[in-house]
TrEMBL record:
Cofactor needs: NADPH; FMN; Mg(2+)
Broad EC category: isomerase
Subunit field text: Homooctamer. Dimer of tetramers.
Natural source organism: Jiella mangrovi
GO molecular function, one term: isopentenyl-diphosphate delta-isomerase activity
Binding positions for Mg(2+) per the UniProt entry: 172
Protein name as catalogued: Isopentenyl-diphosphate delta-isomerase
Binding residues annotated for substrate, in chain numbering: 16-17, 107-109, 171
Sequence similarity: Belongs to the IPP isomerase type 2 family.
The organism's taxonomic lineage, starting at the top: Bacteria, Pseudomonadati, Pseudomonadota, Alphaproteobacteria, Hyphomicrobiales
Subcellular location: Cytoplasm
Length: 363
């Protein structure tokens, strides 16, 4: 509370973020009214009835941010009120370490401003000493005074390997009191890329990144792109659930299925940025979806909402969830005759959509 008894800005933000967790867990934000889809279901592998490889010998390893992953999987950004976030972050860090996969934290705004850490401190690196950890700040904050110093604070507080800058203009536009002046943000991202000591990853939060924007970001110094396409969590729908004002709720729901479907975003960004590390996320529910994302051109797949219930429960539940995703990916490789991820990227498809490059096209 503030001195006059009104809720403080910090408590408002913490409460909002905890609301986000509850809404996502309730499923109210996923594919509202069945309209938005990732497009991943359109990607159908040709079954290999005689794979001539051993399931247990399939190599799922990948290089990411200078570290070796045991599987091409990123636990994507999740958040919550500080106390709840601390528990979730600890569970995810322990799962990432045990399984050898990467971890991206949620927004560090509250921690950067010194109001509560939410588990985003040196303890996170102690729980996950050998896997890539990605810090996270919102691009909108660069229009409100954040700069290189704040970005580096986010990195240093968790000893991160990279910094995510997340883009959420739609969410801000439909949120009461959202940050909607984005003038100059692109230039500020370039300044951050030049000023911080770690690679910068730019991601959307569920509406996708276009090939055109991805190319511009890479030219500005961004190291990697996380497309975070449409078809999974709709943050417009999340904000609609939170809205008290009926008009704002109605407006938010108009945009509940807005965005570039995940499958299309992955394929088109890969074509536009052939040498750029690419994370495919946005509605990935299973290891088969991860396989589809990799076949479309992603280097690794990211998953958030589908794992949130397990992460909220315990480290063991989080490990079990992601172990299942990895096993599903392994089976997809086995049934396409793919001994490793390089082979999976060239696995034959049945009637691929037009946005999928042919196997002869450059990847």
């Amino acid at each position: 509370m503030s001195d006059d008894g009104a809720p403080s800005k910090a408590s408002d933000i913490a409460g909002r973020k905890s609301d986000h967790i509850d809404i996502v867990l309730a499923g109210a934000s996923a594919q509202p009214r069945g309209r938005a889809t990732t497009g991943l279901d359109e990607i159908r592998f040709e079954h290999c009835a005689l794979p001539e490889i051993a399931l247990g010998a399939i190599d799922l390893s990948a290089q990411f941010l200078g570290r070796r992953l045991k599987a091409p999987l990123l636990i994507s950004s999740m958040t919550g009120g500080p106390e709840r976030a601390a528990r979730i972050n600890a569970h995810l860090a322990e799962a990432a370490q045990e399984l050898g996969i990467a971890l991206a934290v949620g927004s560090q705004r509250i921690a950067i401003e010194g109001r509560a850490s939410g588990g985003l401190d040196a303890q996170l690196r102690r729980l996950a000493p050998s896997v890539p950890i990605l810090a996270n700040v919102g691009a909108a904050q660069f229009g409100l005074g954040y700069g290189v110093a704040e970005a580096m604070r986010a990195v240093e507080m968790i000893e991160a390997d990279a910094l995510i800058v997340h883009l959420n203009p739609l969410q801000e536009a439909v949120q009461a009191g959202g940050d909607t002046d984005w003038r100059g943000i692109f230039a500020r991202i370039g300044e951050i890329c030049r000023g911080v000591s770690v690679p910068v990853v730019v991601k959307e939060v569920g509406a996708g990144i276009s090939a055109r924007l991805a190319r511009r970001l890479v030219e500005a110094g961004v190291h990697a792109i996380d497309v975070a396409g449409a078809g999974g969590t709709s943050w417009a729908a999340v904000e609609a659930e939170r809205a008290v004002d009926p008009r704002l709720r109605k407006t938010a729901m108009v945009f509940a299925d807005w965005g570039i479907p995940t499958a299309r975003a992955i394929a088109e960004v890969r074509t536009s940025c052939p040498g750029t590390p690419l994370i495919g996320s946005g509605g990935l529910k299973t290891g088969l979806d991860v396989a589809r994302a990799i076949r479309l051109g992603a280097d690794i797949g990211g998953q958030a909402a589908a794992s949130l219930a397990a992460a909220d429960l315990s480290s063991e539940a989080a490990v079990a969830h992601f172990a299942g995703v990895i096993e599903e990916l392994r089976i997809a490789c086995f049934c396409t005759g793919s001994a490793d991820l390089a082979a999976l990227r060239n696995a034959p498809l049945i009637d691929p959509p037009g946005f999928v490059p042919s196997q002869s096209d450059p990847a």
